[in-house]
Amino acid sequence: MLNNKVGEIQEFIDNIEERKESIVGQIENISSISEETASATEEVSASTEEITATMNDFTQYAQELEQLSQKLEDEIKNFKV
Questions:
Q1: Which of 50, 53, 73, 48 minimizes the C-alpha distance to 61?
Q2: For the chain, what is the domain count?
């Protein structure tokens, strides 16, 4: 009877150990996925900053082109056809 109880306790402990290992593995997977997600988020953020900088450059170039175009129009008015 005591041997049976010891066997049951050992089986219970083994079962708990297996579940613990499974949970640890799942936590490690979640941690890995979280790290990958954080890395991807950083890459998206960096890309967004680059796109914003490029759009700012385009805006500046468009403004400069508009100014040049206005100057050209003013100069053309000086000529008689």
A1: 53
A2: 1
pLDDT at residue 40 greater than cutoff 70? yes
The two three-digit tokens of residue 63, written as one number? 């403004």
Q: Which residue bears the tokens 């403004």?
A: 63
Q: Is residue 25, in this structure, part of any structural domain at all?
A: yes
| CA 50/CA 37 separation, integer angstroms | 20
Quote the pTM value.
0.61
- Note whether residue 80 is domain-resident: no
Structure tokens at 44: 């998206």
Q: Which amino acid, residue 5? A: K
Q: Which two tokens stand for residue 32?
A: 């890995």
DSSP 78: T
